[in-house]
Design brief:
Blueprint lengths: L7 H10 L3 E2 L10 E3 L12 H6 L4 E4 L10 E3 L3 H14 L5 E5 L4 H12 L5 E3 L9 H7 L7 E5 L7 H9 L3 E4 L7 H4 L2 H18 L2 E5 L3 H6 L5 E6 L5 E5 L7 E5 L4 E5 L8 H13 L4 H10 L8 E5 L2 E6 L5 H13 L5 E6 L8 H12 L6 E5 L11 E3 L2 H10 L6 E5 L13
Parallel strand pairs: 1-2, 2-3, 3-4, 5-7, 5-8, 6-7, 8-9, 9-10, 10-11, 15-19, 16-17, 16-19, 17-18
Antiparallel strand pairs: 11-12, 12-13, 14-15
Helix pairs in contact: 1-3, 3-5, 4-10, 4-11, 6-8, 10-11, 12-13
Length: about 425
């Protein structure tokens, strides 16, 4: 049995020799550095030997019971070590880091910003939505030494969470997309949401960094009070202004800059994406990317992962926005769909999660919103839609909804499919 104890600087030297960090033995490649994280239902220490057998250079563990090789590194706590190692790595990188948080749109905004910045710079950033206490440090550790800018997404469901991520990512720039009705249970209401998201601006204020602020959201002005360096965007009274110019299937954005105007024809669905487009535009100009280059990057961006995707099936059109949902994003999607010019419309939405004592009221509010428009059909799926008053079709699962949809014969019909991740509304299309 071997015991290998190292300090952080020594572990960082090992990391620089083996910079591919992995926490899942199913993905181990030759030369990876395996970190044995623990969770409520699993213990990565169990798989340390397997990781080494598959080719990992070292396994970082926090249980002496699993010391079976001189390539095992014993630490007090693997998660804390992951975060400390990421912070140490970030401190070696003298590059801008843009941190993005918010209740809605942060992943889309992150993807758009990366698409714009990547036209000129070598950019590292969050993959998918690895935006939690594990994903943020893993993202930092994947930043290569030749990277010129980092873009880090930060998710949170309680206060002090964003603050902790900032101490790891050390952002130089910050952007809050919005503060909506998401994770109300963990944050303790809307004021808690604003305080929690505002922790990013607090860090920027204390480090004299730069923020990007949406002037359409009055509360962000209060959250940003005292921050010297602000780049603003919005429908009016901002450095970069823009409006949706049509309710066509794809969003067209007319943007005005201090020097000129441009029209961006996106591949994104929903006028609510105008704020995300404007944010990316403002970031691009702040880093001196030419307007035409930004326009081209935004027009070429095509959403995936069930985020505002437009899908054609014969004569039917499907708007699939099933990656996540909360009252704010649900209302925006339904309102936008109501305005869209389709001859026939069907709404299929899954319930919303993590709303605490507000859950029944928020689901009832969505029903009331649906009742303001005449739809061909409405299907409500799962959760508290079973516990509120409505006259619509209700099904327990998206699989049931998919079977129902398959039995129907729709032609020249548009569908809005949306819901919280837990209800996997994309399965409606796979049945």
């Amino acid at each position: 049995m071997y015991i290998c104890r190292v300090n952080l600087a020594q572990l960082y030297k090992i990391y620089t020799d083996y910079p591919s960090v992995q926490t899942d033995t199913r993905k181990i490649q030759e030369g990876d550095l395996y970190l044995a994280l623990r969770g409520e239902t699993f213990d990565g220490n169990h798989f340390a030997e397997e990781a080494l057998r598959k080719g990992a250079a070292y396994a970082v563990i926090d249980n002496e019971k699993y010391l079976t090789s001189d390539r095992c590194i014993l630490v007090e706590n693997v998660l804390q070590t992951l975060q400390d190692l990421a912070r140490y790595h970030r401190q070696q990188l003298e590059i801008p880091c843009i941190a993005i948080t918010g209740s809605n749109g942060k992943t889309t905004t992150k993807e758009l910003i990366m698409a714009v910045l990547s036209t000129v710079f070598r950019v590292s950033g969050t993959t998918g939505n690895l935006n939690n206490h594990i994903g943020v440090p893993l993202t930092i550790l994947r930043i290569k030494k030749d990277s010129e800018i980092a873009v880090i997404e930060m998710g949170a469901n309680h206060q002090k969470e964003i603050e902790s991520y900032c101490t790891i990512a050390l952002p130089t720039h910050g952007l809050i997309t919005n503060c909506g009705k998401a994770h109300l249970e963990g944050f303790g209401g809307m004021e808690g949401v604003r305080r929690g998201k505002g922790e990013l601006f607090d860090f920027i204020r204390h480090t004299d960094g730069i923020i990007f602020r949406n002037t359409d959201l009055d509360y962000l002005e209060e959250i940003a009070a005292g921050i010297k360096h602000q780049v603003t965007y919005g429908a009016h009274n901002a450095d970069y202004t823009g409006i949706p110019v049509s309710h066509a299937e794809f969003l067209n954005a007319a943007i005005t800059t201090p020097m000129n105007e441009c029209l961006i024809r996106t591949q994104m669905v929903g006028s609510y994406n105008i704020a995300n487009i404007l944010a990316a535009f403002a970031v691009g100009r702040t880093f001196n990317i030419p307007v035409e280059t930004i326009r081209k990057a935004l027009e070429e961006y095509s959403p995936d992962n069930s985020r505002s995707q437009l899908i054609r099936q014969e004569s039917n059109t499907i708007i699939l926005d099933a990656y996540n949902a909360n009252p704010t994003s649900m209302q925006a999607a339904i309102s936008n769909f109501a305005l869209a010019d389709y001859p026939n419309k069907v709404v299929m939405i899954g319930a919303m999660k993590e709303l605490g004592e507000r859950s029944l009221d928020e689901h009832q509010h969505i029903v009331s919103l649906l009742e303001q428009t005449n739809w061909n059909d409405v299907v409500l799926v799962g959760g508290d839609f079973a516990n509120v008053k409505h006259h619509y079709l209700f099904m327990e699962t998206s699989v049931e909804a998919g079977k129902w949809m398959k039995q129907k014969v729709y032609k020249h019909t548009a569908f809005l499919i949306k819901g919280s991740r837990a209800f996997e509304m994309e399965k409606v299309l796979s049945e």
